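Hey Z.,

So I finally got round to the hexanoyl-coenzyme A thing we talked about over coffee. Here's the setup:
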Amino acid sequence: MTAKEKIQELRQLREKVKEGGGPERMAKQHERGKLSARERLDLLLDEGSFQEFDAMVTHRIHDFGLEDRKIPGDGVVTGYGTIDGRLVFVFSQDFTVFGGTLSLAHAEKICKVMDQAVKVGAPVIGLNDSGGARIQEGVTSLGGYAEIFLRNTLASGVIPQISAVMGPCAGGAVYSPALTDFIFMVRGTSHMFVTGPDVVKTVTHEEVSFEELGGAEVHATKSGVCHFIADDDGMCSTQIRRLLSFIPQNNLEDPPSIEPSDDPLRMEEDLDTIIPESSIKPYDMRDAITMVVDNGDLLEVHEHYAQNIIVGFARMNGMPVGIVAQQPSFLAGVLDIDSSVKGARFVRFCDAFNIPLITFEDVPGFMPGTAQEHGGIIKHGAKLLYAYCESTVPKITVITRKAYGGAYDVMSSKHIRGDINFAWPTKRFASPYVAAQMGYIDEVIEPRETRPKIIASLEMLTNKRQQNPPKKHGSIPL
Ligand code: HXC
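And the result:
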């Protein structure tokens, strides 16, 4: 073979790799409203940036008729590329090849990108669309999953890990996304469950559809498994890109600041009147947050779950921050089991990745009742307390109306190392001046001053260095 022929052969092989499971299966994928593994990567990554690994890898099964069915890539496209010019590692499961199922070879490909990502300190994004363990492989497939779970766990808090579930994700396979930092799901096409509707029917006699059991809506509103919900694959890619714009590449870097495009000294007069005269009237804390942050831009996490607390990312004078806020217009902003867990998870992510925390507090306390007590509000509320206590990133608190009971302590109070604590002079029963006299509030401020005050505090805290006592790890009340 001449050199020219050899290059021609390589080109043909590369083209074959792109065919995946063939045109029929590809058409079926599109009919379901789903994109192919490669189309998804095209949308996710900067144009032309994708570099592929292991395109020729095939499974090694010599049984069940699979010995004659080897498809290069073996059901997952892996490699790296960039998003807004920043390096990311990716894997994208190809449902057209053996239903995107996980063979040992498939697992090894995923592990390779995860190892590389940890080595160079860059995020991993997994696009999941898979029938789970490849039945013909038996225990080697299970071993492959375990190798992935181990890497998910060891990479946790070192590099950001993002999962998009864009098709089925069932059985133990759900635990890889569950171990990552954020899960995206797509309405109508993605499902996650440990046991499917048939098994549920056999064991518990419940009749439930795929959608009711583990659809995107259920996980975004009821279980809290899903952090972001998208209408289709394209929207999901856009959401992932936006999330990454707020977070650093790894735990040793600061989050990416951008050129500020909003006045840091902007006073917002409407904040002065946002708290209703009547103390029983709610208001939308989202309005207050969007008046304070750069250009009113807030990316909510868990937007549809435990809505009595708001968590999300925003910028202050170009610097990414994590926002935690009570929502008085939902269950009066009370702290209950779900909102405590939602808040705790977010606080820990921000702390792990050097993202300052800004807490807007208007809290009547913890939710009373047997449902909450028997459900474990003590241990779940403790998670939020623990998360705030252990966090060492800059922490700024603004009490907008009230901070009662144990919830006063929990929500980034001065006593648990809140760096700067402000209060508006609009507290319902207890006056903020009593706390201010004790030094528990650094300053009582006019609501309109909130933005410039927070930005000045963040700048003052830029070089904050704080460490917890050395230990293997704490024992958070799980
Ligand atoms: C091997 C599989 C497969 C599997 C699907 N396929 N699941 N091959 N092992 N687990 C193949 C099908 O044979 C088919 O091949 C192709 O993938 C597409 O599947 P269809 O059934 O035609 O597609 P669809 O109707 O959309 O149904 C998708 C599905 C269904 C809902 C995912 O296939 C299904 O229920 N599969 C079994 C899911 C499952 O029980 N997985 C194990 C979960 S437990 P052809 O050649 O026709 O295209 C698990 C344990 C992990 O994963 C443990 C970790 C600790």
